[in-house]
Amino acid sequence: MKYIAEINIMTRSEILDPQGKAVKLGLHNLHMDSIDNVRIGKHIRLNVDAATEEEARATVDAACRQLLANLIMEEYSFDLHAV
């Protein structure tokens, strides 16, 4: 069966996010002062071929842990959809 994984990777909240800080400053310069705590992350979409949903989840989790996310600085979550 084929699955699509939608992966979100974000810098941990205790880690400084200079990109988020720059975007926040830009938004405030545009008089959008109600926006706060901007964090910039990554969104990854990939296709997975697996016999079961559990196998697909295990594959995506392994990909995130071993390559896609730096677990020291980042955290990840993902959704899986059958196609």
Kindly name the structural category. Answer: alpha+beta
List unreliable stretches of 5+ residues: none
Strand order of the largest sheet: 2-1-3
If you average the pLDDT, what whole number results? 97
Helix proportion: 25-40%
Shape: elongated
Element pattern in H and E: EHEHE
Tally of separate helices:
2
Radius of gyration: 16 Å
Describe the protein in words.
The relative contact order is 0.35. This protein has a 3-stranded antiparallel sheet, covered by helices on one side. The protein has 83 residues and is an alpha+beta fold.
Write the layout of secondary structure elements.
Blueprint: E1 2-11, H1 18-29, E2 41-49, H2 53-68, E3 74-82
Antiparallel strand pairs: 1-2, 1-3
